[in-house]
């Protein structure tokens, strides 16, 4: 008896779920462009890079990317500003 009730319940629940999925609206663009959604995608990409580069974590990949971006950016600033940043301890050089 219990199994019959359970089977009826599962069948009804499945039908209800299918009905709700048909009514579900497509994901709006605002959601796709939301900060948390983009952050999640970036995190997944960094985790994938970490795995492929055999690094410990996505954080390590992110740190290396920031360092590279900083090194290339520091080459483009005027000498006076570069000297000031070095004295302030902002650069890695």
Record the SSE blueprint:
Elements (H helix, E strand, L loop, with lengths): L1 H22 L5 H4 L2 H18 L5 H17 L4 H10 L5
Helix pairs in contact: 3-4
What does this 3D model show about the protein?
- With 93 residues, this protein is an all-alpha fold.
- It has a domain at 26-88.
- The protein contains five helices and no strands.
- It has helices spanning 2-23, 29-32, 35-52, 58-74, 79-88.
- α3 crosses α4.
- The model has no long low-confidence stretch (mean pLDDT 75).
Q: What structural class should be given to the helix and strand makeup?
A: mainly alpha
Topology as a string of helices (H) and strands (E): HHHHH
* Termini gap: 76 Å
Low-confidence residue ranges: none
Largest sheet: none
Describe this protein with a few key phrases.
elongated; mainly alpha; single chain; 93 residues
Task: Briefly characterize the structure.
The protein contains five helices and no strands. It has helices at 2-23, 29-32, 35-52, 58-74, 79-88.
């Amino acid at each position: 008896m219990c199994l019959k009730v359970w089977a009826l319940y599962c069948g009804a629940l499945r039908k209800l779920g299918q009905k709700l999925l048909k009514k579900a609206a497509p994901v709006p663009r605002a959601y796709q462009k939301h900060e948390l959604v983009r952050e999640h995608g970036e995190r997944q990409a960094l985790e994938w890079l970490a795995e492929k580069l055999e690094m410990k974590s996505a954080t390590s990949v992110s740190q290396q990317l920031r360092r590279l971006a900083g090194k290339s950016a520091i080459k483009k600033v005027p000498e006076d500003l570069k000297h000031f940043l070095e004295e302030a301890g902002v650069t890695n050089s």
